[in-house]
Structures
1.
Amino acid sequence: MRTTQARPNSTMAGGRGREGGGQSQSAMGPSSTAVARPLSLEEMRAAVAALRGGASVLPDAQHDETSTDAAVGPPVPPWTDATNLGGVVLVLPGHAGAGASTVAVALAEALARGRKVQLVEYADPLRSGLLSASSHELGTVGPWRRGRRGELDVWRLVEPVASCGAPYLPDGDDPHRWSVVEAGAPLISDWLASSDEVLERVQHVVVTTRLTVPAVRQTEHLLEAISGPVFVAALGPFRWPRLVEAGCGPRLRELRGRGHVVRVPIDRRLATSGLTGDSLPAAVEAAGRSLAALVAPQLPAQHRHRPQAKSSRRTPAGTVR
């Protein structure tokens, strides 16, 4: 006679053991015959991070039953990995087409002077603003596609976040490296709406916007959702249009009055070609250094000085200096 070994808790749940027949089978549910799936790379990394943090990762008999509920819970910010000990600067677009990729590159290159910095993008690969920003492509590492741009490691997702989840920041050779993280607007909107811990372990937030009335209005909504330190990179002319100044909300006006708004000039060539492996325009690089001086005050801002014209005053002897 062949016997079937049932899970102990399923017998208790049925209340009748083997005598319950079909009723006990329905009480046990399909989980009694489910096959445990192998752990993914990201789940194994999460388990390692939990062990380092002192958490318990013992096998749970109810893992299959609770995995669905956990999947729909609040998302975990990927920069809260215990192995990431460096600073994190989050660059967010205040609206579509806000120039977040350009600002992220300029800021990361400025911060890389004197420290190790990596540039990480959480965006759909088909909509990546850093697609051609690397001067050298170094292949894929897990869920990441790695590139090199000067002193920067540039990381882009291989698959969309919806299919692969939001992986932790890439592992580097220095755990104290800084990470400039660019997150797409749909992704960060979902994170901010579902969890109050999205900005945990983020040292600074930089929000990018263009100087148009619809743009600053949309940016104001994002600024209201951020309670911590925040700076604004405003892409547009040196003098703000009057209509834009009138359309600014209280949060943006406050940041502008405190000197936390940096103007980023719009370069025609860059606007046409997009980011490439070439150097950024000098004016955009200067804006990145200004942002870096706010984010990391220990690094002095490097201002560009125009060369002064030689004096043409005449000496008493009549010669020209």
2.
Amino acid sequence: MKKTRGITLIALIVTIIVLLILAGVTIRLTLGEKGIFKLAELARKNYTNAALYEANELDKFLDKTEHIPTIEEENFITLYSGKANETTSIYDLADTIDNYDYLIIYCDNSTAGGMVSMMIETSVIMENDLDQFFMTNSGNVSATLRYIRFGFLDKNKFKLSNTTGNSYIKRIAGLKKGKIKKVELLTSVANEEKEYALSQSINNFDYVLVYADNEEIQGTSTSILGKEIAKTNGFLTINWDSNMTRAIRYHFANDKILKVIAISHQSKIIRIVGLQFNHAEKQILYSGTESENNKKYVLTDNIRNYDMIVTYADCQTPKGMASNILETKYIEEGKGKYMATLSPSNTIRIVRFIFEDLNSFTTYGIVGQAYIPRIEAIRFK
């Protein structure tokens, strides 16, 4: 008799129980809190978050570094560097000024112990006018004058017509085209103590560039003024010659009115231009009212994070503010000494300052309660 082979009921039950256990384990490994699908979803979210974090950090890095110019993107080009102090010499520029909208010119003086600067539009430069521009340094309480008068023979050369007290032109830099839009605001010559209407509100611009001239000594000086400070302060532009002050004091009575407060010896304002910086950021690095020799003042940021700074000087008596514009790239730590002269009379008011490092400045050689009320920084984007 043949035997029939098969599984017993017990074996079947055991098999089913084993399969159920395996199914449970499989379901747990795939669908549980720590299952494959959950882990895969977690991995996807972590990857997405990591990618977003990396993109955000890259954006932050680019925001911090996009203002730093490469060699090909330099905003200022050196046109002259040296010690131009001879009236018999002709000094060549490295490039024609027609390739630039503005020049920044530095006048230094080894005796006075301080450098001044001015900004001019290349469009107003006249060829063969050697008395067109005038810059002043002054070194002590008495009316000891250090000044320099100069002009451009053509678009590639400049020459001095007069210099006193070891004054010299140290540097001329050209600002590349397209960085600043401008509008002429003064349509007449301001040569009387009265109000003059401007063609537009100064609120439409970042800065105003003011040209002051004097018929007696022949020479134009400039001041660059931020619109915020222009609306709340008085200003003073000085030309000197033969121990005689030529000065004009003025302020903006409102955003569309220039008011001349006082004039001496035929001084006059011949031009005011509104400047709007294209894609630029402006920051206040310092604001204060202290007038103290050999005191260190901390800035809110490193000046090398910006392309240029505007420094203002003021004094308690008489009121009248002046300014300097400086390329931050050429400010030397502990070496570059700057100054501002403020005076409507033969009694000089002076403040000298030096950047001991890139995050602070120190005032020294103060005369007549002069002080630094404000330093602004500009960064092209």
